Amino acid sequence: MRKRLGILVAACLYYSGLVALSRTIMQRRGQQLIILNYHRASGGDLRRHLLYLRRYYRMMHLEDALEELYASTATEKKPTQDQRTPLVLTFDDGYHDNYTHAFPLARELQVPITIFLIPGSIESGDYFWWGEGQRLVDRASVDEVMLEGRTYRLGAPTERQLLSQYIDARLRHARSVAERETFLARVRDMLVVPASITVEEEAGRPLSWAEVRKMEESGWVSFGAHTMHHPVLAYLADPAEVKREVAECRHVLEQQLGHRVRVFAYPIGRHEHIGEEAIQAVREANYTWAVTTVHGINTPQRDPYRLGRVLGDVSRHWLVMAAETSAIWSMLSPLWKALIGQGESA
């Protein structure tokens, strides 16, 4: 119900001309930069998203767009006759489907994209930890498991959900990467997950270095840093580990790619997940810019280490994405929430 209502509202905004009007107003407000935040590239209609974005926005690689945004004098700015608002398409984490789905579209449609990588995941080949609660429970070979004083009966859907949520919470709030990995290994052993890989699991595995290099060689894909192992930086107990996660990531990426890496993306990325120590670590590691997942369209006055992004998701209808990027969606957010509330209570 909520999804259908969202598409209906977005369609009204688009076909009434309000989305186009909002785009025009944005262009006239001066220098602004939209950074879209995607993760997966499969499971939706990324092609339709890209066709829309390519038509109405000036799509750029992230570093190029940020250099333009923060150029301090008129003589430093790259002249362009294209007055459309600059937009960058970013993908966090480096899922395999960024290679199988986003990369072919980027080449075909000539749309630049930027992917934030986790070197530790690339090197281990392990599944990303934040999806493991659900995946391990779904593929468990046991009927019952006792974990930290509680027994979960996996034949009951409610019990399965509770176990998945508990695993996710423990992994997210780990006080170190070592603590997280130790707990995850124990859970994997207890649930006895088969070694066979499903099609969905293959799409969700990390990229390989060979895939990364092939994408970069095309000229349509650029890369940024996303920590070595994707901990929630604000939850780490040791400030030294925060610094290692940030600095080592850049070092490894620069070794693998053969050039400087200047942009960092905070894992999870909201204020409560970052913390001042992480922001200081990013500065000390000599990154030039850092992006959050806090909603926002960027101007030259924005803190370069707290850049905002706009949610992107291939499962969303392109009309919703069009309204979101035009900024009219967030302007009408109070009304939209009221409509959703009424729809859900009906």
Indicate the proportion of strand residues: 5-15%
Q: How many E-type strands?
A: 10
Tally of alpha and pi helices:
17
> From the coordinates shown, what is the CATH architecture of the largest domain?
Alpha-Beta Barrel
Can you give the helix content as a percent range?
40-55%
Largest sheet: 8 strands, parallel
CATH topology of the largest domain: TIM Barrel
Rounded average pLDDT: 91
CATH class of the largest domain: Alpha Beta
Please mark out the parts with pLDDT under 50 across 5 or more consecutive residues, or reply none. Answer: 342-346
Under CATH, the homologous superfamily of the largest domain reads Glycoside hydrolase/deacetylase
Distance between the termini: 10 Å
Backbone shape: globular
Number of domains: 3
Q: What is the chains' assembly state?
A: single chain
Structural class: alpha/beta
What is the CA-based Rg, rounded? 21 Å
Give the H and E element order: HHEHEHEHEHHEEHHHHEHEHHEEHHH
Give a verbal description of the structure:
There is one protein chain. With 346 residues, this protein is α/β, with parallel strands linked by helices. It folds into 3 domains: 1-30 and 316-346, no CATH class; 31-120 and 206-315, TIM Barrel; 129-191, no CATH class. The protein has 17 helices and 10 strands. The protein has helices spanning 2-15, 18-28, 46-56, 62-69, 96-109, 119-124, 132-138, 157-172, 177-191, 199-203, 209-218, 239-257, 271-274, 276-284, 318-325, 328-331, 333-345; strands at residues 34-38, 58-59, 86-93, 113-117, 144-147, 150-153, 221-225, 263-265, 289-295, 307-311. The strands form 2 sheets. Strands 1, 2, 3, 4, 7, 8, 9 and 10 form an 8-stranded parallel β-sheet that branches. The protein has a two-stranded antiparallel sheet with strand order 5-6. Helix 7 (132-138) packs antiparallel against helix 8 (157-172). The longest helix has 19 residues, at 239-257. The radius of gyration is 21 Å and the shape is globular. It starts with a helix and ends with a helix. Mean pLDDT is 91; it is low at 342-346.
